[in-house]
Design a protein that fits this description.
The complex is a heterodimer of chains A (242) and B (886). With 242 residues, chain A is mainly alpha-helical. Chain A has helices spanning 14-22, 37-41, 52-61, 64-68, 81-85, 92-101, 110-121, 132-149, 174-178, 184-192, 209-212, 216-233; strands at 6-7, 167-169, 197-198, 237-239. Chain A folds into 2 domains: 8-103, Alpha-helical ferredoxin (Fumarate Reductase Iron-sulfur Protein, Chain B, domain 2), CATH 1.10.1060; 110-239, no CATH class. Chain A has a 3-stranded parallel β-sheet with strand order 3-2-4, with no helix packed on it. The two termini of chain A are 41 Å apart. With 886 residues, chain B is α/β, with parallel strands linked by helices. Chain B has a 5-stranded parallel β-sheet. Chain B has a 5-stranded parallel β-sheet with strand order 22-21-20-26-37, with helices on one face. Classes of the chains: A mainly alpha (242), B alpha/beta (886). The A-B interface holds A 2-9, 30-41, 45-46, 51, 53-54, 57-58, 60-61, 81, 83-89 and B 86, 132, 136-140, 176, 202-207, 219-221, 225-227, 616-617, 657, 659, 676, 679-682, 684-685, 687, 706, 709-719.
Amino acid sequence: MAEEVIDLGKMTRDFKKEAMKIIPGGGNLDLCLNCGTCAAGCPATGLADLDPRKFLRMILLGLDEEATKSPWVWMCTGCQRCIYACPMQIDIPRLVYNARATWPREERPKGILGSCDMALKNASGSAMGASPDDFIFVVEDVLEEVKDTQPGWDELQAPIDKKGAHFFINQNSREPVTEPDELIPLWKLLHVAGIDWTYGSKGWAGENYCMFLADDKSWEHVTRTSIMQCAELGCKVYLNTE
Amino acid sequence: MGMNKRKAVYVPFAQTVPLKYTIDRKACLYFQAIDKGKKGKCKACEKFCENDAINFDQTATTVDLNVGSIILAPGFQAFDPSKWDTYQYTNFKNVVTSMDFERILAATGPTEGHLVRPSDKEQPKSIAWFQCVGSRDINRCDNAYCSSVCCMYAVKEAMIAMEHAHDPLEASIFFMDMRTYGKDFEKYYNRAKDDMGMRFIRCRVHSVIENEDKSLKVCYVDEQGNIQNEDYDMVVLSVGLESSASAIELGNKMGIELDKYNFAKTSDLTPVATSKPGIYVAGCFQGPKDIPYSVMEASAAAAAAARDLASARGQLQKIKEFPPERDVSGEETRMGVFVCNCGINIGAVVDVHEVAEYAKTLPNVTYVQENLFSCSQDAQDQLAEMIREHNLNRVVVAACSPRTHEPLFQETMSNAGINKHLFEMANIRDQDSWVHSADHDAATQKAKDLVAMGVAKANLRVALQPIEVPCTKSSMVLGGGPAGMTAALNIADQGFKVYLVEKKDVLGGHGRKLRKAFSGEPVKPYLDDLIKRVNDHENIEVHLGAEPKMVSGFVGNFHTDLTTGASFDHGTVIVAVGADSTKVKEYLYGENPNVMKWWDLDKKIEEDPDSIKQAKCAVAIHCVGSREPDRPYCSKICCAHAIESAIDLKELNPDLDVYMLYRDIRTYGRLEELYQKARSMGILFVRYDPDNKPKVEEVGGKLQVTVTDHVLGRPIVMSPDFITLYTAIAPKGTEELANMLKVTLNQEKFFLEAHMKLRPVEFSTDGMFVCGIAHYPKPLDECIAQAQAAASRAVTVLSKDKVVIEPIVAGFVDKEACRGCGLCVALCPYGAIDIEETPEGRKAKLISASCKGCGICAATCYRHAISINAFNDTQIEAQMHAFLNK
């Protein structure tokens, strides 16, 4: 493949045009100086024979299919180190996102796909599939245990669906599902600080694999469920812990 | 700069003028108390100063001046990289800025010129330079422009560091585009790369990690895209140039317009004029630039101001008075020898103290002194003082080149009341420490020899008086392009006659081909106006279709015969003859009509826009004939011109695919904006390697270009409707003119200025000046500024009634020895010798004012009848004896 001549006359560069319409401000894609700072700072450089500079270059030249279909687009962690140092502030992470979105949903990586599907199963939005009832049970159970066994924490709270609380706080599913004790430190901090907060029974899960899957509709659904719960409770601030 | 602690009483920097101490009010105990409203104490400096030079009552004073014109030259400040957390300038000790590094290399710096890394004061074994820190960046800062000078200064710093290091030093420069676009810069870059083994790595480094031993881990990608990790002892951030807050304040106070980067706004057609009439700008406040161009621009600003003030010329003139000259002819020789360290330039190689001690043993030497910088103001004052104190009547300065510094020392001689020709220089820098830096002992020995030879010659020096001749107050300007016409108009506006000589039958030169300046301003109306003003000017006499046939004479007294038969006298010459395009044998040029040179494309844009609107693909190839082994220079204007034209193409036809095949994009200064604009329009830039140039073919009657994409490393192919070649600019026929004018050319046959930095528009031959692309390719704004500068320098000659000629000429004919053979007359290139009939027969007769002191006559005369003042046989023999009999 390396020696195959790239005929620029045949390139439509549709992907670039579409991406620039979607990315806020166009993402400065055309401004690339090929300086290599993105590739030098990228944890995914060299994987699948690609790096951010090469990826963008392919898009600019019009190798839409080859670039967007590379498994590399799923190796990007979205860490933003590229755009952070890029002299032209080129939005490569969002470009990668748009490349992911071109994949048929069923062909996207199983792990991410499965996690997104889990989140769509019930109102929790949890990538691990935990239901609102499961979440409520775990939180209440852990809270009770703390009050019983840890002196001085009689007043500790972990409210769910508390109307009019100032902060609506979400929570990664990993803690309630696999490490319940890890929930406690945050509660204690909030308690000591005297914060008025609440979890929601709906949309309590903070992670959003549908975003990583580049499944816009599902991403919106998961996010909307959570935000609506916050709004319904009349909370002033949505505090995203992810 | 915070690299070292300094006292509350300090000298701002080593070569500050005047070299005087000042008190840091914030650090001074006395003033700290006063400023708190308490009674001040300490005043130790006052107690200890033997000369009672401390004055606590001095305050800033306001001086009112009435002026007719103002020139702003507040300079620049270096970009502060503290806020860039990726490079950790504030936290990692061994990350320094280029300005810090200059101080580390400086003899007067915190390390006294020893190359050491800040963390442990050990000599670094490897140093990395990061280019474009605070330049060409719209993310981490707002300086979208290129700072113009950093590529060259980084190469220079790396070169000096490699030369200074005792052990081999690995120097790597991380860059995006290597911008060595100035005169002779490309050769410097090639030398660093090919001869010195400096590494040039094309990558902008993402971030730096500090290792336990305080060395720095630099992670980058090579051109193939592979991650590379390298440890460096030091990292130097090549920081950009920007306007300081005080410069911005000055600009605002003056009411001049600043551009979006806070540089003074100027037009490409009036490059040193601010938005406010009568206020001019020079140097980096106009935009980032290097020393040669800043110095040139200073003269240009002076020319612009002088034009406004021509009617008031001389009104506030003060004439410098020298003390009467002491007649030393009857005195015993008392010689002073001053040996210079030139910072570390000499001192780091030559044992200056040993040389000074040796000088004390030489005949007639009564006083010897070592200097850090002999050329500094305080060293000059001291030189004069020592002459008086020790009653010296000969002086030898062992330092740098007389080419640059002899006039300075000679003036000091005059200030001390001693004839300036009783002075001699020994060049222990250019001819010794610089070229023998690897062998300190041999270099010290050579310095001693040079000093001994200098002393031997100085012993035989005699007082000489200058020759004064009247000055013809007119100038000849050769070349009727924008540069020539600008120079002519400025001189004429200042009230002097100008003979403007143009080879062609029309004025305008290459200006006629230019559609617009890089700023976008149209050239035609400007040029038409310029031509009209030239033709209408009462002081300008235009000679079209004419070339000089013979130019004779000397500064203030030239005579020229033109090929048209016209002839005239003039006091100065300005060479603005331009340069030309080059022949192309590559890329199917001449074989396929759709392969064009750049002005053909410009013409197409102007005359046939429909063909562009119908085209699908256009390709431009840069560096055609430039930066090649047989033409090792950058033609400087092609990148920006190519990009400007590409933008025009895109504006005419947004659907057109435009590809620029380049080697380095060299849009320096604000021209970088053009490059950014071109990219934002979707113009694609593909970098090719000179070893793997683009392949242009005709396939099925259509053009096809194949080139390797520099990022993907894969071949890409385009089928352009037309290809534009950005061909080199080269001098044409300059050799003949240079011979006629007795001026020099550089290796590539561009006219060579007397000194790149200090005398950028003057020839070594007095009264002759150069501007425009005859000097080196440059864009219109720089041509105009340079023409103003040349005019300014010419007027310094024309504005005086007399010309003073140095008496280093054939000074004497031994009438008894002379046989009147006429050999000298035949050989003198300046027509400065005649044969006269005398009662004793035919004898040679000198015309001293025409003589340039070349010495051909003296060297040829088998009778030794002619000698050159200050270079006679006896003196030269004494030098040889001093060397051989040591």
